[in-house]
């Protein structure tokens, strides 16, 4: 019996020793793999700790290291560990681009460096690539990635805005103008300039021409020069409001687009408590402008665009609206209803992209049936800003440089009824303690029986 116990004890010690050895080997292998191969999963709400695909694409545009200099103290009275916050934020970008070099300078301990850099705020960031620099005073993906977009552009893109006929002003502050849209374009490297035929006889082919809802008749000679610009391969954004075309019918004919009279009426807008004359863009075509675009857009007082089939232009519908609505050709007074004889049933095409090849260069045109959708008063509705930015980027040949919008945080509130709260309280305060007590008594009784 004693010999058996000794053999049994020896075998048990061998088994225990072997288990410990295997466990240590396994721990060492896992540690080695963890050092050599790093894998991360973002389990946060709405993937807030990961970069959007747009930001990843922008990082891949850089062919060298990017320097990030942060002028921040060790602690901030309001934000606390501001260096830690910025370091954690930049580390998400460094996973994609390891040569994103982050440096910190304390503006209090090194005031001369901060002064020479023109730093005014604690936590100000200077991003440098080759000989270009961008500054940031806020830290979020939208601001940081848009700063990278500006650095990645080799030069400012020019926007020529037709003026002299009551067009919407890109630097205007009225509700009708497009000043807010222009500010966003400046953030990603576009520069708009008003263009008038009284100042320049010809439209320079150095950027994108924007025709934003003229209010007075263009002269015949002005229209001819716009057609000449188009014939030479110039890119164009044409925002067309309802009503007369003010001499631009030849432009529509050259583009092969029929602009029907009337206003799009969308009954779905009523359900969202906005006027039915505010058509909701919910259907988008397969195009670079609308790729992965799933926002609702709002087109107030928009008109229908019908691209005709022709061998000159390739057209793609960017947005359709009012699948349950129609084009109202009658007066917009009283109760508006569909007239089978005069009105056109939806869905209605309201934005079109066209392209063709002119002298071995791709020419791009976008026509939208509402200038209101980019106006100051309506730009903040739905995805209007995103769609407008994507249109401009595509026209500039930079469709990969799309606008980066902040991620929406999903509502994390948990609302419970009185009954649910009572059940939870009963479960945690009464039921669970009773279960533990009964389990303990049962285990004690079972051991005594043995």
Keyword list:
Glutaredoxin, nine-stranded mixed beta sheet, four-stranded mixed beta sheet, alpha/beta, ABC-type uncharacterized transport system involved in gliding motility auxiliary subunit, transmembrane helix, Rossmann fold, 22% strand
3D architecture notes:
The chain is of the alpha/beta class and 450 residues long. It has two domains: 45-151, Glutaredoxin, CATH 3.40.30.10; 157-395, Rossmann fold, CATH 3.40.50. It is 34% helix and 22% strand. It has eleven helices and 18 strands. It has helices at residues 2-36, 53-59, 82-96, 111-116, 141-152, 179-187, 220-231, 249-255, 267-271, 384-395, 418-449; strands at 66-71, 100-105, 124-129, 132-136, 157-162, 190-195, 207-212, 235-239, 257-259, 263-265, 278-284, 297-300, 305-307, 314-321, 326-328, 344-345, 348-358, 361-368. The strands form four sheets. A nine-stranded mixed β-sheet has the order 6-5-7-8-18-17-14-11-12. The radius of gyration is 32 Å and the shape is extended. The two termini are 24 Å apart. Mean pLDDT is 84; it is low at 406-412.
Q: What share of residues are in beta strands?
A: 15-25%
CATH fold-level topology of the largest domain: Rossmann fold
Q: In angstroms, what separates the terminal alpha carbons? A: 24 Å
Question: Mind describing the biggest β-sheet?
Answer: 9 strands, mixed
Shape: extended
Oligomer: single chain
Number of strands: 18
Strand order of the largest sheet: 6-5-7-8-18-17-14-11-12
Can you identify the CATH class of the largest domain?
Alpha Beta
Mean pLDDT: 84
Structural class comes to alpha/beta
CATH architecture of the largest domain: 3-Layer(aba) Sandwich
Helix percent band: 25-40%
Q: What is the H-and-E element order?
A: HHEHEHEEHEHEEHEHEEHEEEEEEEEHH
Protein name: ABC-type uncharacterized transport system involved in gliding motility auxiliary subunit
Keywords: Membrane, Transmembrane, Transmembrane helix
Pfam family, one: DUF7088
InterPro entries: ABC_transp_unknown, Class_I_gatase-like, DUF7088
